[in-house]
Specification:
heterodimer; A: mainly alpha; 4 helices; B: Ubiquitin-like (UB roll); Alpha-Beta Plaits; Rossmann fold; six-stranded mixed β-barrel; 29 helices
Chain lengths: ~80, ~950
């Protein structure tokens, strides 16, 4: 997947959820991506550099990565 | 069903709780107060002869045929204009009445050509019938006097002729244009013997007048004065089948009137609950594509897309497709395969495509064209209200006191509903229009918006937040409703957010370009004007904040208590006929039918048990993600039923690159569409006239689609999907779409009470149809939201990434025109091209003058994505700085210019905001010339050596 495109998508989601505050926005964004992104898109953004993302998006992807770590549910909670 | 004219009770139905009892020719009947004597007589089984009356028009009383005698009343009143009274005694057949009627008929016939045997309306003519009813045998006045018999016929309209020599000046056409359509294009010119029907001004004909060819006048005409050319050419229909239109989301029902296997005409069905007997130029007349010479009737395959097509048998084509799909699956895994369902196909066909992808391909990579139109509606309304659908039926608009239209142009895109809306506006409802363009409803005959807020494209959320600011800070919210029906904590958070001074209309005016005074007044009207209903379209959804805008709309409706009863609500106007149905049927990659997430174990288990397969619990790829994944190599095969993504989706070059990267593209369509240029398999589809099934319109109304002729290619579309599924090893054995609907009902709670039998009995049903709503639900969220409590969502305005600047200083927004539908694959192959033979670029006079452009000049339209050329229409309908075009013609390829920016939540493309520059041009761009050449090459066909 074109990771640049995924970064744009992630940052756009973060900007639209930012009004909720950093923590709530990151949690909502992680949930959103779990619900709507295909696994290869999720894998690509998780593997990407966090510095390439806005702070909220980076936090969200960290949360997402934690959910998809071994022993964690892959899909939405 | 044998052909018969539709029943006509003479005057419209009246609603009243008071019943009036009277006697007509000795028969006692009880009818609602206000009913005409004519209607009461027809209801009692004794229809009175008439010519100027029709039950979809207000009584007029001009023809003097429907005279009756009433005890206690002097003279012989017209029964159409005389209301019933308690204990009234009416006689409709007396010697005096017979004499009077015969005398009137003599006058009509003395100025009427006596060419009945060669007339196109012979044996289907109300004048002929009435002459027979009154027993006319001769005309005492002779035929030698001055007459209208030599008047020339106006054949300017592509679909019907106007022969004034046959006109009886009953004014039914004029009144239909006024009352039913609301265009006021026709008039009765002159007085007395000089009276004549006139379209537009003196120099106009029907084509150049304001006539929108809805067909209401033709339907109303009691003679052959206004007659369909097809009836003249083919003859009187012999049978009729009631079915549902395959154009926009209004979902009009029509009688397909047939002569043998030939369709003579489509006539709006008076009992249709979506259209109430009305139609538009597309549904009424633009069905010629069904028999167009461009239709492909044989399956075709090719190994590479630069090869010519090879006509093959169905068996070979299906085997070819299945083999390629199986090879790709074996080599690259199930995630490399996917499908696209069509909002132009039936619920049953759509359901089967998503089932094939999930159960046969083994992935959830299924998406639908709603991705590029109303996917934000699904997200936004499900989040706020708990279900992904509009809240009202169309009839609801007749109870609205305030109508707010945002990002929709109903007179062009949903014309039949627009006529209902205009009728309500003429009755006094107030109108607010939020749109960058001055759409027709802003000001048209007898309709004028109270407020038009011409916002800067891309600022919907800012405008709606400013309206919410006014409502909250001025104490106009319906807090009792909110407390009772909604999540109060979320409301308080939302109210505090919108009340912030940074959301005041005055603060946001530099962003929205909407005068704060106007915006405040519009917000007050919406909140306090009585029943307020919001209708919206793609001008809401096709933005980077499409989902936020839908939720902002839902917030406004909840905050003002405008949910849960007739006359209010949130109403997405769906673009295509079955957008609602395609979404209901599980066409999205994250949802199974009934909007249930694929990760839900219980739902998956239900489908797995029924289908006998395991279903991937992960969401699949959406259309733009499929194209990205194709370019990066992880997505390689796509089955597309009834869609043309190359023309309809944004950034054409990127779509082309994605398609070209795939190893197997299967296109199932009527024509070699633009996408087929990149296909390896072409499966010839069937028109809506050639299949059985159901469509679900914008008001959640499930309506039957009935086969009126055999499929020209040999198979209905659902059968083709089944052939492919069987070739891939699935044990599918559907014999009729009713079995597919039974399966849908079995697996989808909101459809559990739906069956073909019930639809045949009821005509239509609005989901949910289940134990809680056995007869469906015209209005949703009555008493309680589908999701329990209504949820307010804070929607912050986030400007789009698409910015204007020195290189691209204008904003382009795109849309539709009345005479065309979507990518134009159907309407471009009909007489409708007479109105719109090309896409034009609307530009404000100031912008045009600054660029040295005049009306009709060729211009180069360029964005960061690409460029095209088209001709300019100079008009102040668009604001300075904004240009507008349509996307109906592949030669223009407007989507070469649009970008891949999309809605943050759903990836719905941002068609409505593209930064562009416009400059004078001499001709087509290199892209257009290359595209044309490539398109010609890709459409080469080698015929089959032997027929199947």
């Amino acid at each position: 997947m074109d990771v640049q495109r995924l970064r744009q998508m992630a940052d756009q989601i973060a900007r639209n959820l930012a009004v909720r505050g950093p923590d709530a926005a990151a949690a909502a964004m992680a949930e959103h991506i779990a619900q709507f992104w295909d696994p290869r898109m999720r894998a690509a953004i998780i593997a990407d550099r966090r510095e390439a993302l806005s702070p909220i998006a980076a936090s969200a992807i960290d949360l997402l990565a934690a959910r998809t770590a071994p022993g964690q549910a892959l899909g939405p909670e | 069903m044998r052909y018969e004219r539709q029943d006509d009770l003479g005057t419209p139905e009246v609603t009243s709780e008071t019943r009036i009892t009277l006697a007509i020719d000795g028969r006692e009947i009880s009818v609602p107060a206000g009913t005409s004597v004519m209607r009461a007589a027809a209801l009692s089984g004794g229809a009175i002869p008439k010519l100027c009356a029709s039950d979809n028009l207000a009584a007029f009383g001009s023809c003097r045929i429907c005279l009756v005698e009433i005890d206690g009343m002097r003279g012989t009143p017209a029964s159409c204009t005389t209301p019933v009274a308690e204990n009234m005694v009416v006689r409709t057949q007396t010697a005096r009445l017979e004499r009077l009627r015969k005398g009137v008929m003599e006058l009509y016939i003395s100025d009427h050509p006596l060419d009945c045997l060669t007339c196109s309306a012979n044996n289907d003519c109300e004048l002929q019938d009435t002459a027979a009813q009154v027993g006319l045998r001769d005309v005492r006045y002779g035929y030698a006097g001055t007459s209208h018999l030599g008047l020339p016929t106006d054949s300017s309209n592509p679909y019907f002729d106007f022969d004034p020599s046959k006109c009886i000046a009953c004014s039914r056409c004029v009144r239909a244009c006024d009352e039913v359509q609301g265009t006021f294009a026709l008039t009765m010119d002159g007085r007395g013997f000089a009276s004549k029907i006139s379209a537009g001004q003196a120099l106009d004909d029907f084509f150049t007048s304001d006539c929108v060819s809805c067909g209401a006048c033709v339907q109303a005409c009691p003679t052959a004065t206004l007659q369909e050319k097809a009836v003249t050419a083919i003859g009187k229909p012999e049978r009729s089948v009631v079915t549902t239109c395959a154009y926009c989301g209004v979902g009009c029902t029509f009688r397909a009137e047939m002569r043998g296997e030939q369709l003579v005409r489509m006539v709006p069905w008076k009992d249709g609950k979506a259209n109430r007997g009305h139609s538009c130029v597309k549904g009424r007349f633009a069905w010629g594509y069904a028999n167009h010479q461009d239709r492909i009737l044989n399956p075709m395959v090719r190994d590479r897309i630069d090869e010519p097509w090879r006509e093959v048998s169905w068996a070979e084509a299906i085997a070819f497709a299945a083999s390629r799909l199986a090879t790709i699956k074996a080599t690259h895994g199930a995630a490399a395969l996917g499908g696209i369902t069509s909002s132009r196909c039936t619920n049953e066909e759509t359901y089967l495509v998503q089932k094939l992808v999930r159960a046969g391909f083994g992935s959830n990579n299924v998406d639908t064209c709603a991705r590029v139109c109303h996917s934000p509606t699904g997200y936004g309304l499900k989040t706020t209200f708990g279900t992904s659908a509009g809240t009202q039926d169309f009839d609801s608009v007749m109870h609205a006191d305030v109508i707010l239209i945002i990002g929709a142009n109903p007179t062009d895109a949903h014309p039949v509903f627009a006529s209902r809306m205009k009728r309500r506006l003429r009755q006094g409802a107030k109108l607010i229009v939020i749109d960058p363009r001055r759409i027709d409803l802003v000001k048209s005959p007898h309709v004028e918006a109270a407020y038009h807020l011409p916002l800067q494209p891309g600022t919907n959320v800012a405008v709606l937040t400013a309206m919410a600011h006014v409502i909250v800070t001025e104490g106009l919210a319906d807090e009792a409703f909110v407390r009772e029906r909604c999540d109060l904590d979320e409301y308080r958070d939302w109210a505090a957010f919108v009340a912030d001074p940074r959301h005041a209309p005055e603060t946001l005016e530099p962003v929205t370009r909407v005068p704060a005074v106007e915006l405040r007044a519009a917000a007050r009207l919406y909140a306090t004007g009585g029943n307020a209903a919001i209708y919206y379209g793609l001008g809401v959804t096709e933005h980077s904040q499409g989902s936020s805008t839908v939720m902002a709309i839902a917030n406004l409706a909840m905050a003002t208590g405008n949910i849960g009863r007739p006359g209010v609500g949130v109403n997405p106007l769906r673009g295509q006929n079955n957008v609602q149905g395609a979404c209901d049927m599980g066409s999205f990659p994250h949802e199974l039918p009934g909007y249930r997430h694929v990760s839900d174990d219980a739902t998956r288990a239900l489908f797995e048990a029924d289908w006998g397969v395991s279903i991937d619990p992960e969401p699949g790829l959406r259309i733009p993600n499929m194209l990205d994944a194709a370019i990066s190599g992880s997505f390689r095969a796509l089955y597309i039923q009834g869609e043309d993504i190359l023309q309809s989706d944004p950034n054409t070059r990127h779509v082309a690159a994605g398609l070209a990267a795939m190893e197997c593209v299967i296109v199932q369509d009527l024509f070699l569409n633009e996408t087929a240029s990149y296909a390896h398999v072409f499966l010839p589809g069937s028109t809506f006239l050639e299949k059985n099934g159901t469509f679900t319109n914008a008001e959640r109304r499930i309506q039957p689609v009935r086969k009126v002729m055999e499929p020209a290619s040999g198979h209905e579309d659902w059968q083709i999907t089944q052939l492919l599924a069987q070739a891939m090893g699935l044990d599918w054995n559907y014999i009729h779409p009713r079995q597919i609907m039974d399966e849908i009902a079995r697996l989808t709670p909101s459809f559990s009470g739906v069956s073909f039998e019930r639809l045949d009995a009821c005509g239509s049903l609005q989901w949910p149809v289940n134990e809680a709503f056995p007869d469906g639900a015209p209005v949703m969220h009555v008493g309680q939201f589908a999701g329990g409590r209504g949820r307010f969502v804070v929607t912050d305005y986030v400007p789009t990434d698409e910015k204007t600047g020195p290189r691209f200083p204008l904003l382009l927004t795109t849309g539709r025109i009345l005479s065309h539908y979507n990518v134009g694959a159907q309407t471009r192959r009909t007489g409708n091209v007479a109105w719109h033979p090309e896409d034009r670029l609307e530009m404000h006079p100031v912008d045009a003058e600054n660029r040295g452009l005049k009306d009709g000049d060729w211009a180069r339209l360029a964005s960061r994505t690409g460029e095209t050329t088209l001709r300019v229409t100079v008009t102040d309908r668009v604001a300075p700085g904004v240009v507008y075009t349509t996307f109906h013609h592949p030669s223009t390829q407007a989507n070469v210019v649009t970008t891949e920016f999309s809605d943050w939540a759903t990836n719905c493309p941002e068609y409505k905001v593209t930064a562009v520059q416009v400059t004078p041009s001499n001709g087509p761009t290199d892209w257009q010339q290359d595209y044309e050449a490539q398109s010609r090459r890709s459409r080469r066909i080698v015929p089959a050596e032997t027929a199947e």
